[in-house]
Amino acid sequence: AAPEEDEDDDIDLFGSDDEEEDQEAAKVREERLRQYAEKKAKKPGLVAKSSILLDVKPWDDETDMAKMEECVRSIHMDGLVWGASKLVPVGYGIKKLQIQCVVEDEKVGTDILEEEITKFEDYVQSVDIAAFNKI
Predict the structure, then answer these.
(1) DSSP letter, residue 108
(2) Measured at the alpha carbon of residue 104, what is the angle toward residues 100 and 110, in degrees to the nearest 5?
(3) How far is CA 39 from the centre of its chain?
(4) What is the phi/psi pair of residue 56, to 5°?
(5) Domain 49-134 grouped into CATH 3.30.70.940
(6) Can you give the pLDDT of all 135 residues of the chain as single tens digits?
(7) Domain coordinates of the chain in residue numbers?
(8) 3-state helix, strand, coil in the chain (%, to 5)
(9) Which of 3, 46, 95, 104 could covalently link to 87 via disulfide, CB atoms 3.0 to 4.6 Å apart?
(10) pTM for the full model?
């Protein structure tokens, strides 16, 4: 009865007979994973951008709106591009500047942008975000 039990112990139901083949497959798999990682690293990542519509409000109807727009557009940051603008009537002869910009989310935040615009305190009373869209 003892020799029959030894035969059953030698059978490996879940292993493979060829360990060299498994090692070779593992080497090939590792090489392919390494090549994939290198290829992925070379590929430029997707840059997250946002389109922002700002309402820049003046102090009163005597504020020079052309000068205010010039001041706002004078703000230059890496990842900031100014777009179209227009003057929108608010009431009592007062107009606000509505200006479009596109920003790279990693480089320019809305807080920084608002702070920079409100530094022109002779012209700008406040800044509001009218629209914010991810691109």
Answers:
(1) -
(2) 60
(3) 22
(4) -105, 115
(5) no
(6) 445 455 555 565 565 555 556 778 888 888 888 888 888 777 776 778 999 999 999 999 899 999 999 999 999 999 999 999 999 999 888 999 999 999 998 899 899 999 999 999 999 999 999 999 998
(7) 49-134
(8) 40, 35, 30
(9) 95
(10) 0.66
